[in-house]
Amino acid sequence: MNYNDPTFVSCDGFQLATYPDGPETATPVLMIHGWPELAYSWQTTVPALRDAGYRTLPYDLLGYGHSDAPKAVNHYGIANLVGHVEAILDHYGIQKAIMLGHDWGGIILWHVVRMLKQRTIAAISISTPHVGRAPIDPMAIFEKRYGKNHYFVEFRDRTDAVEALFNSNPDAFFRMMFRTSPDGVELTPELTELPRRFADYLAAGAPDNGKMVVTPEQRAVYTDAYRKNGFLPGMNYYRNTTANWELAKGLSTQIEVSSLMISPANDFFLPPSVTDPMVKTVPDLTRVTIPNCGHWAMWDQPEAVNTTILDWLTDRGF
């Protein structure tokens, strides 16, 4: 995967950067990254899948990396994001693909396998479970449970201030974020306060606390990308939470394709326990927990992630 040599796909008047690899006639795997990431986050995954005979197709989501980055929030609604997946498949003449997502890519993934079921062979999510539609607006739930400083709420209510804060030092932002997670950490309201935590981190001089999951050279790829596009496009995904919830009213909660749910054991934002309800909505579900692994699973435990994916694909005959 050469991250500096994308192939562009046109959709909705924008250009999406894609990075196809592997035999064109092989089973395709569409790879959807999360926040605050890039298609580059699949750098450790692509070689394993390609060498096993799959065609890999990671791409920079709209607003990220080499893809176009419009400012308006409406461009980042879930219907648009699912439409981007369809446009990429059409561009490459792919009828059906295995869908692989991490973090926000998992949110998109679970919508894709319902809205584009006819284009989906199987679903693999890392960290992000499929969840049923909340009884009320999820933003109200986040605010009540965690307070007004929860990052979803701050992205909505203090957009300009948070954008300016994150943009002030992208390298420090990734030094804070891309670290391993210790055992036994449980999610608290304080941990969800990403803007406040980053402001405190800067005030403390951006110390090197904890083990990084990326090298300085790998971190520089993210830093350079976010210096170019800024953090607003990624925040716009979260700012569509209410609109996405409203749209999901008409969607079935059932997932009708074979699905693999990979949970990092030390992901305190999305611990393995949050996948328990999936047994009711995903009839053909395999759940695997990766030990000694935090949220940034592809960087933290790449061999375990790759082995889990390939073993499951082999067992299922995909």
Description:
With 318 residues, the chain is an alpha/beta fold. It has one domain (7-316): Alpha/Beta hydrolase fold, catalytic domain (Rossmann fold), CATH 3.40.50.1820. The protein is 40% helix and 14% strand. It contains 14 helices and eight strands. The strands form two sheets. The chain has a six-stranded parallel beta sheet, sandwiched between helices. The longest helix has 15 residues, at 302-316. It starts with 6 loop residues before the first strand and ends with a helix. The model has no long low-confidence stretch (mean pLDDT 96). One of its GO terms (molecular function) is hydrolase activity.
Quick synopsis:
This protein has 318 residues and is α/β, with parallel strands linked by helices. The protein has 14 helices and 8 strands. The strands form 2 sheets. Strands 4-3-5-6-7-8 form a 6-stranded parallel beta sheet, with helices on both faces. The protein has a two-stranded antiparallel ribbon with strand order 1-2.
Helix content: 25-40%
Tell me the fraction of residues in β-strands, as a range: 5-15%
Summed up, the helix count is: 14
Query: Ends: how far apart?
Result: 22 Å
Please state the oligomeric state of the protein chains shown: single chain
Mean pLDDT: 96
CATH architecture: 3-Layer(aba) Sandwich
- Which topology does CATH recognise? Rossmann fold
Main-sheet strand order equals 4-3-5-6-7-8
Report the structural category. alpha/beta
What's the main sheet like? 6 strands, parallel
In one word, what is the shape?
Answer: globular
- How many domain units? 1
